[in-house]
Design a protein that fits this description.
The chain has seven helices and 22 strands. The chain has 450 residues and is an alpha+beta fold. A hairpin with a 2-residue loop joins strand 7 and strand 8. Helix 1 runs antiparallel to helix 2.
Length: 450
């Protein structure tokens, strides 16, 4: 179009060539008038097309504009939704299932089964527990269930929203604030009770015991006067404490020996606890195969046998514990023997490598699925405390042999499983300095929260 305009304008502006000085002829003037008229007509048509396209653009903008305004409308619609619906809070109690709760609000068996199938990727309804909260939103006019929310934990809520005859799931994590928290304490009687008195949750106490299990036996090694310093994440929502997170660092002084642990994620996205030198606390062996126990008999080359009434070597450690207490493998390995072994009764022997083997005797029963040759991992339950064989009461006879020679399980020094590489050490050292400052700030200020 623009090319045509340029050509026309050039013709209009072009001066006519005269053969004489006489005035131009009338026919030439009419040609010029005709060309001008055509040009004007084309310009008019061009602008008409342009304005029509502009109408389309304006229409597109008008379609977008309501979306920009709709942010206000969204909140108004949410408010209207709340006014038109009623929320009823239910709690799952013993003997009453999630199915029964929904059935009480008019949902058909087909609907409930459909809901359970829909949310299965997020949560298995058979795992609901007593005390869980279920919110039901009913339409005030139709009395139909429009939305269901199941509070899975302080961190997660599962929403189930009606869409016609179907229900759609949505798993959400409400906003929370994370505050690293320092807690210090001193052991007066037991570490467990002292930690509880300082406000450390019971599961965190067990996590600490597991974390340092390779270096400290929390039943026999703990003494009054031992001290502990813990840094962990605590979560808050709307100003209220809701739960706790990972233990970030620990310093435990046990009988004047300092044990430290720092939580760190390396460049390969592997998370774990390390000592100050970047060595993993996950050693080759756990220090004990039981979590709750007391030592009733130590490693000895000459011990009086209570049943045989004679002195004989005892190449293990007896841990007294109630019948049925789970027994864990202290390290990765393969079962080299499982079955009845004379005075040891039900007995399991695990070969960990070409150097070490461990034995577990007087078991009441073995864990299901185990047989000779089965592979086990550190912490796997392999059996349960009992009193089989020559035994005066329920206990575990635990032994370790090194290159075929029995050694005292309580004195063995197990090497670290691995340590951080040079590339990760810089970040790890910075973390250690940060935790040091945290402990120092707590000691000078006396504040719990950082």
């Amino acid at each position: 179009m623009s090319t045509i305009f340029i050509k026309l304008l050039s013709i209009i502006k072009k001066k006519p060539s005269y053969t004489s000085k006489k005035s131009p002829t009338p026919s030439l003037r009419w040609d010029r008038i005709l060309l001008v008229s055509i040009t004007i007509a084309l310009i008019v048509v061009f602008f008409l097309i342009l304005f029509r396209s502009g109408d389309h653009i304006a229409a597109t903008e008008e379609l977008i504009a309501p979306l920009l305004v709709s942010y206000t409308d969204y909140f108004e619609s949410r408010q209207d939704w709340s006014l038109n619906h009623k929320r009823i809070r239910e709690r799952i109690v013993k003997g009453k299932t999630f199915y029964e709760i929904l059935a009480g609000y008019g949902l058909s068996p087909l609907h409930i089964i459909g809901i359970e199938e829909t949310i299965r990727p997020f949560f298995n309804m058979s795992k609901t527990r007593a005390g869980q909260i279920v919110d039901i939103w009913l339409n005030k006019k139709s009395r139909k269930v429009e939305k269901i929310s199941l509070h899975l934990s302080a961190e997660k809520t599962l929403f189930i929203i009606r869409n016609g005859d179907d229900f759609l799931p949505s798993l959400t994590s409400p906003l929370k604030i994370t505050i690293p928290t320092a807690i210090n304490g001193e052991v007066s009687n037991s570490f467990y009770q002292s930690a509880i008195d300082r406000g450390i949750p019971s599961d965190v106490i067990m996590e600490i015991a597991d974390m340092l299990a390779w270096d400290i036996d929390f039943l026999v090694d703990i003494r009054p006067g031992d001290t502990f310093q813990v840094v962990l994440n605590r979560y808050y929502r709307k100003g209220k404490y809701i739960s706790h997170g990972k233990v970030l660092a620990i310093r435990f002084v046990n009988q004047k020996r300092v044990h430290e642990s720092f939580y760190f994620t390396d460049s390969k996205d592997r998370s774990g606890y390390y000592d100050r030198k970047g060595r993993s606390l996950r050693k080759a062996f756990l220090k004990s195969p039981l979590r709750y126990r007391r030592i009733s008999s130590y490693f000895s080359s000459r011990r009086f046998h209570p049943i045989l009434k004679t002195y004989r070597p005892h190449y293990g450690v007896d841990y007294a514990a109630p019948t049925g207490t789970p027994v864990e493998s202290v390290g990765n390995g393969r079962i080299s023997f499982i079955g009845w072994k004379g005075g040891y009764g039900r007995y399991i022997r695990i070969r960990h490598n070409h150097i070490y083997e461990t034995g577990y005797g007087h078991l009441s029963k073995f864990a299901k699925g185990l047989k000779k040759g089965s592979r086990v991992r550190q912490g796997d339950v392999i059996g349960y405390v009992g009193s089989s064989g020559l035994s005066t009461g329920p206990h575990l006879d635990f032994s370790i042999s090194e290159r075929g020679r029995f050694v005292n399980p309580l004195s063995i020094k197990s090497p670290p499983a691995f340590r951080l590489n040079r590339g990760d050490r810089k970040r790890f050292d910075e973390l250690v300095i940060q935790m040091e400052e945290t402990w120092q700030n707590y000691q000078t200020s006396g504040l719990y929260y950082l």
